[in-house]
Amino acid sequence: MIQVNQLLKKYNGTTVLNIESLEIPKGQSFGLVGNNGAGKTTFFSLLLDLIQPSNGKILNQNIQVNTSENWKSFTGSFLDESFLIGYLTPEEYFYFIGDLRNQNKADVDALLAQHEEFFNGEILNNKKYLRDLSKGNQKKVGIIATLIGNPEVVILDEPFANLDPTTVSRLKKIIKDLADNPNVTVLVSSHDLQHTVEVCDRIVALNKGEIVKDIQTSKETLQELELFFAV
Amino acid sequence: MIKKFIYLEWKAFIRSASFGKNLAMKIIIGFFMIYFSLIFIGMGVGAFYVLKDMKLEPLVTVNKFLIYYFLFDLIIRLLMQSIPVLNIKPLLVLPFKKLTIVHFSLGKTALSFFNWIHALFFIPFSVVLILNGYDVVEIVFWHLGIMAMIYINNFLNIILSNIDKLFVVFAGIVLALGGAHYYKIFDITLFTTPFFQSFYDIDGVFLIPILVLAGLYVFTFKYFKKNLYLDAGLSVKHDIASTENLTWLNQFGTLGTFLKNDIKLIKRNKRSKTTIFMSVLFLFYGFIFFGNSHQPAVMHIFAGIFVSGGFLFVFGQFVPSWDSSYYQLLMTQNVPYRGYITSKWWLIVIATFVSTILASFYIFYGWEVYLTIVAGAIYNIGVNSHLVLLGGAFTKTPIDLSNAGGAFGDKKAFNVNAMLLTLPKIVLPLLLYWLGLHFGSKPIGLSLVAGAGVLGFIFKEKVFSLIEKRYKMEKYSTISAYKQKN
């Protein structure tokens, strides 16, 4: 599904990301962990063609992301609040994304109904623009918007941050459901080892731009990771 | 303590996004600042001699129009001068005295562009008056009085800025007073002129505005100090949102999706709303040129371009920066660039069209004048709309939508790029028109301009491909530029 080859990103001579090779098969739920500055967001930005690689390439379903834009039709992503349009209401935002992904209003409504519990009554019909929502609620909107149009690749950067405990456990369920679907590849990054271990089949740890661990999740994974990140 | 504040302000100033890292840009900004300053100073110096030439007593005449000057100044301030509230927040929990914070942030407004720009006019004007034998002391008093009036406006703006749409009320007052004055129903200046004149004539009267100013300062100070809480004066007002579906636009496919979004963009953000107001102002630009024998005929086309092009210049100029805050989102969606650009183009075309219809009152000056505007509109649609969109690929200043200030003057958004890009849009039609006028007649000049517009329209698809390519090339640097907001 996703293939990374000799990927290198440098800023003014400093290497911030250097991945020799990485392959994420279709249907996998992939967790990316690491400290601040490890290169998680850089990797996702490269995957979404928001920044240019200094060297190497990324293929998303055999489409090289920085030469063709065809990956956009099956990839849903939410990196941060800059993916939200502040002056829209949540509904308008969902329909806007729906329009861009060829989903009609009924499709979007059906998806929203499915996730009503996740919204906890704080999102829809609240007479608020996105810019006036709290950080956590903005995140809820952004995450659900990535699911519009049944994307085959879902990319979430730090989805657990800023969410209340109840929402975190609901989000875990959503991600697990996605992971259970053999057609959907989920990529999640987080600082939180426990959450990531819970929802992902495979965990890759980055440190200073390089892959330092690549493990299939098992009972011992959390301990192993905690040991690794402990000082 | 004040030293610390000044340090922060200085950093904020030199590091503001649009101040630019580029040396060439700084030089150009400097050039424009000097240019405009010189214009104001020139006006200050020249006003005396021009008025004298017209056999008017300069000081009295200036005093006569001051009431309109101040009202207009207040309107501009209400529209554009922003209040220094937002950057107070991080200071609250630091060991600063509240008194100092308030004094400083009020004091800071005193240094605003909106205040010192007036000095550039009034100081030379006062100096010329003195050189021409007016009493030195009295002129200084008059000057102090006027300066106090300007600062009264400054603080009025701070107090009144919490009330939405107040500028409409003031604009209404100005229009009503001006209209009544013009039709000789009621002349406000009969009352205000003696008052302003008495700053000069009667010792001590100038103390009145200074006392009012002092009172206003104390009032503003108390008001601010009382409201220096996150849930009071520092709270950000939330609008009550209503979902609009605008389903009638669905029939246009992707184009409709973007148009829907753009309409909401314009309606729901302060900064973009002012562009509508500005475009209306542009409609009246022609009054300076038409029916004015002092202006050379070739300048008519200049007015023709601007009358219908207000929206094009104030909105189109900043595409795609309007979408800067969520540009990353657009780049990850299945968005064809062409659809995006086409939607903006249509928006510009519709606005230009509507402006042209609204400008039909110029028929009052004769058909030829209106045809000039129509020719300008055709040129705007055919050529300038492409130029602004193309220029947009290079304008990488992120726009903070919620901030109304900035279209002009506000140091943080003084965009010289935009001004430079304006020049070719006007110079070319001016040249075409001049050629037509010089070697033929007015109709030939107009048809040359309109013809250029039609030509541009014919090559629309080609130009769009070019623009699309440009946008793609600039994609990464645009994304990274938009990320660097304050």
Would you write up a description of this structure?
The complex is a heterodimer of chains A (231) and B (486). By secondary structure, chain A is an alpha/beta fold. Chain A has a single domain (2-85, 151-230), classed as P-loop containing nucleotide triphosphate hydrolases (Rossmann fold), CATH 3.40.50. Chain A has 8 helices and 10 strands. In chain A, the strands form 2 sheets. In chain A, strands 6-7-8-3-9-10 form a 6-stranded mixed β-sheet, with helices on both faces. A 4-stranded antiparallel β-sheet of chain A has the order 2-1-4-5, with helices on one face. In chain A, a hairpin with a 2-residue loop joins β4 (55-60) and β5 (63-64). Chain A is globular and about 45 Å long. Chain B is mainly α. Chain B folds into 2 domains: 1-233, no CATH class; 248-483, no CATH class. Chain B is 70% helix and 0% strand. Chain B has helices at 2-14, 23-53, 58-80, 89-92, 98-110, 113-131, 136-160, 166-182, 189-201, 207-226, 254-268, 270-283, 299-314, 327-332, 337-358, 367-392, 416-439, 442-458, 460-473, 475-483. In chain B, α6 (113-131) packs antiparallel against α7 and α13 packs across α16 (367-392). Chain B is globular and about 70 Å long. The A-B interface holds A 48-52, 69, 72-73, 75, 77, 79, 82-89, 91-92, 95-97, 99-101, 126-129, 131-132 and B 238-245, 254, 256-257, 260-261, 264-265, 268-269, 325-329, 331-335, 401-402, 476, 479-480, 483.
